Amino acid sequence: MNIQENISLLPYNTFGIDKIARYFVQVTSEKDIQNALDFAETKFLQVIILGGGSNILLTQDLQALVLKIEIKGIKLIFEDEENVFVEVGAGENWHEFVLHCIHKNWAGVENLSLIPGTVGASPMQNIGAYGVEIKDVFHQLKALNRKTKETEVFNWEDCAFGYRESVFKNKLKDHYIITQVVFKLSKKPVFHTEYGAIQETLEQMGVASPSIKLISDAVIQIRQSKLPDPKEIGNAGSFFKNPTISKNHYMKIKDSYPNAPGYPTEEGIKVPAAWLIEQAGWKGKTFGKIGVHGKQPLVLVNYGGGDGKAIKELSREIQKSVHQKFGILLHPEVNFL
Length: 337
Ligand SMILES: Cc1cc2nc3c(=O)[nH]c(=O)nc-3n(C[C@H](O)[C@H](O)[C@H](O)COP(=O)(O)OP(=O)(O)OC[C@H]3O[C@@H](n4cnc5c(N)ncnc54)[C@H](O)[C@@H]3O)c2cc1C
Description:
- By secondary structure, the chain is an alpha+beta fold.
- The chain is built from seven helices and 20 strands.
- The chain is globular and about 60 Å long.
- The site of flavin-adenine dinucleotide has 31 residues, from strand 3, strand 8 and strand 12.
- Keywords: Cell cycle, Cell division, Cell shape, Cell wall biogenesis/degradation, Cytoplasm, FAD, Flavoprotein, NADP, Oxidoreductase, Peptidoglycan synthesis.
């Protein structure tokens, strides 16, 4: 374990923000994490956990110890006729894990293809796309308690998964470091092609009977056509969550905007944040080195050399104007550091 000093975090965040970590260490085992926590204790340092840096916005230099999770390994721990249970190191790349599952013909995560980041961060915000969320394939995780430095096991019920939420973002925020996740995948796939443009894309691809590989290919094609690649333009995917409002509130919006999109959920009507931001006039707006993406207004972008604080301020302006226009407060999905 090599604790480095004054390291630029530019290569470690998809927004491409250049901020410094006072101390930085890559950890490959639980023992490494325990040693790193000991080091932080002796220096009275805050500890910040980093996976792939695809859901964070750096707004300042970090006077802290940044722990980059590099715990690897994919292990089949149990199987029966229907399912496989696979334990995955928190530092594994999410999309590479998805490709591994497709190669093995383990179904369940194909709709989550091409989401950046690590396996360890996936339960944090219950990542989701195209009608599937982590909670649908999650079995269990292991996490190190930051105080006791002991490993604890969390089952599905313990994680309190919600839309882009889990107990680790709320009640237990900053209490645990996730080290392994166990997924329950299926040997007998149920295809989810009804969501977004998957069916249409499969038809364009000339696919009559889908497979998990073909669904993954379709999802990758759709995502590449819609979302900016962080390697080309800095971003962290959707900046805000899609808000859910009451039916009455939605009907009032409909009075002025008959085409306002809305999707019924158990809690009310979910309205696409992208639509609200576009109606408030932000789509494609550029402010120096930063802006709102021209194709997908839910994505804030750094064209190069942009400042995290300026992006945070832009997000506040967007929140304000959407609130003024529709009476809806958008909540960020991205974590500010
Ligand atoms: C182009 C693009 C598209 C995206 N599309 C989607 C999408 O479709 N659906 C979706 O849900 N998300 C999407 N995202 C967001 C992002 O990919 C996910 O949130 C992902 O899970 C973040 O993983 P990460 O390893 O990069 O986490 P990081 O950004 O490194 O960390 C995110 C948070 O989790 C904490 N954390 C990370 N690892 C651990 C750990 N092992 N233990 C404890 N805490 C930890 C960090 O401290 C931080 O608070 C997208 C992002 C981009 C850039």
